[in-house]
Specification:
2 copies of one chain form a homodimer. The first copy, chain A, is an alpha/beta fold. The first copy, chain A, folds into 2 domains: 1-118 and 285-328, 3-Layer(aba) Sandwich (Isopropylmalate Dehydrogenase); 120-277, Isopropylmalate Dehydrogenase (3-Layer(aba) Sandwich), CATH 3.40.718. Chain A has helices at residues 15-27, 39-46, 68-74, 79-88, 101-112, 148-166, 187-198, 224-249, 253-261, 263-272, 299-314, 317-326; strands spanning 2-6, 32-37, 53-57, 94-97, 122-123, 126-127, 135-138, 172-177, 202-208, 219-221, 281-284, 289-292. In chain A, the strands form 2 sheets. In chain A, strands 3-2-1-4-12-11-5 form a 7-stranded mixed beta sheet, sandwiched between helices. A 5-stranded mixed beta sheet of chain A has the order 6-7-10-8-9, with helices on both faces. The two termini of chain A are 29 Å apart. At the A-B interface, helix 8, helix 9 and helix 10 of A face helix 8, helix 9 and helix 10 of B.
Chain lengths: 328, 328
């Protein structure tokens, strides 16, 4: 299998990307890693690279503050666009980028192209849960306004992903809502609820944002706006609480001593809330595997993304999605 | 001033309500507290009540699982409806209830009535912030679907509330959104952004849910659906983190010992995230003061709600709101 990596996108590019590629190439000899970027930058970092890493030249970079669609249209020789083209032309089975999220979504639509039968691709990161199993949540920001039918497409794609990539037989699908009763919600969720009940999925009903971390479902569907609000609210609350704890626990000599004893305990709690544990969010609904890594991905997180991508390729995710939607 | 208290609504009714009324009556002799409920239940709890507490008989109770509008229409002799009628008829300056939220909103609309010039009342609780000053956020669930103009009305009402009740001169108004740039968001927030820029308020732009606890604004406006998603996501994340910490810190003898030393520190962090600190959310946009207390309000929380209600009455909030919107 061949995986293209946008070697220039993300906070720790290109070092983390080269490092993870070297590690992945050694662990999985069947995998060909294509580092897309400036050879003059990448070659010295690679050194005497193994046979299953190659460089695909690309001399521009899409920056994190570039306007997505404009950047994709103008920077046709950027590492991200070139990686997308490799997928489109069948020269790579998947691409991974930790760069500008909006630009990656634009590449999904404009370069790789939509999957037949899908109106709107959705970005589907894994949410951490207390039992470490995680929830696949979509859409988390690819589309701000959604119609009820889009949520049904998300439910179908998310179910297939959890089945093919994570081996869950009948993934439980929940609808993000303000209450658990069927009649709750806004116009969108009320209409989506009825459609989801008819869909060929294991629909378990409404899910409240306060319960998400307890894993009430395996796939959570929502519009990109409220999904993004939830995601950032949880991240923000966690970050604030840890900041408060740090301030309190270093306030006095005694508290510092006691906190020192508890350091491993605190670390375990922090790790549970860590989104990097599940790095690699698929853009579901495009005609190829397009994977978004966290902007802050280090080499370990990038390797997690590569591992997930390998599983998705190995289990024929895109062919299964194409099958599912081709008749629709 | 006269404050009607729904003495039968909430998890700790009627005991907490009677206790808080007795305490408030003693502290504020200028305030007349009207306990609405079954005299046979309330009288024994009151004992020899001071002259500024009276009982207004009401023999039905709206339960937390009653269907709101139906309950308000049918249980016309319930404590919540009778309290609303006292406000409507000018026999009370305000009402407070810790009962069924949906029913209280229905009473706002059907019994008390909308304020002239307001399309949709909004429920405006205070969000805790790190500096303890809090943010007034609306709407948090009174209306699931909002139009851009509703968000502008929320901004005007919220500003006036922060000014009249909390003495903030030019309250900073933020718009809940998925990014801070002006062009971010869904159709609703994009349109609302433009209107808010023109409105006679101190608009500070978009606010992300991850930053809310740092108090980027004094008033936060949003539609009821995403507001409720954010509120419950923050509550849920905080509750999960404290649960994880508790499990970790009681896991071994050593960790228990160290955690014992840090108990006051943990409590301070927990208190910062406590929504009960700010009990008493006004239903803004109805023609009278209707205050929602937390369902789990104890006597202390109920007294906080009474204190806030007194300030709102004393500063002429409803007259100021009526003035603001009468020409619109």
């Amino acid at each position: 299998m061949r995986i293209a990596i946008d070697a220039m996108g993300g906070d720790h590019a290109p070092h983390a990307h080269v490092e993870s590629a070297l590690s992945a190439a050694a662990e999985w000899p069947d995998t060909h890693l294509i580092l897309v970027g400036d050879p003059e930058v990448l070659q010295p970092l690679l050194g005497g690279a193994p046979h299953n890493i190659t460089i695909e030249p690309a001399y521009e970079v899409i920056e994190s503050d570039d306007e997505p669609v404009k950047a994709v249209r103008r920077k046709t020789n950027s590492s991200m666009v070139v990686a997308g083209r490799l997928v489109k032309e069948g020269k790579a089975d998947a691409m991974i980028s930790a760069g500008n999220t909006g630009a990656l979504m634009a590449i999904g639509l404009l370069v790789v192209g939509r999957l037949k039968g899908i109106d709107r691709p959705g970005l589907a990161p894994m949410f951490p849960t207390l039992d470490n199993a995680g929830i696949l949540a979509l859409d988390m920001g690819a589309n701000m306004d959604a119609k009820p039918e889009h949520l049904v497409q998300y439910a179908l794609m998310g179910s297939l992903y959890r089945n093919k990539v994570h081996g869950i037989r009948e993934p439980r699908v929940g609808l993000l809502n303000v209450g658990t009763e069927a009649a709750k919600g806004n116009e969108l969720t009320k209409a989506a609820f009825e459609l989801l009940e008819q869909a060929p999925i294991n629909f378990v009903g409404n899910v409240e944002s306060r319960d998400v971390l307890e894993r009430p479902c395996d796939v959570l569907v929502c519009d990109g706006f409220s999904g993004n609000i939830m995601l950032k609210a949880i991240e923000g609350a966690a970050s604030v609480i840890f900041k408060l704890l740090r301030a309190e626990l270093t306030a006095s000599f005694t508290s510092k001593l006691a906190a020192g004893v508890l350091k491993p305990n605190f670390r375990r709690v922090r790790d549970k809330m860590d989104y990097n544990e599940y790095n690699g969010a698929p853009l579901l609904g495009v005609n190829g595997l397009v994977i978004k890594g966290h902007g802050s991905s280090d080499a370990k997180a990038m390797k997690t993304a590569i591992r997930q991508t390998r599983t998705a390729i190995g289990n024929g995710l895109i062919a299964a999605l194409a099958d599912e939607f081709s008749g629709k």
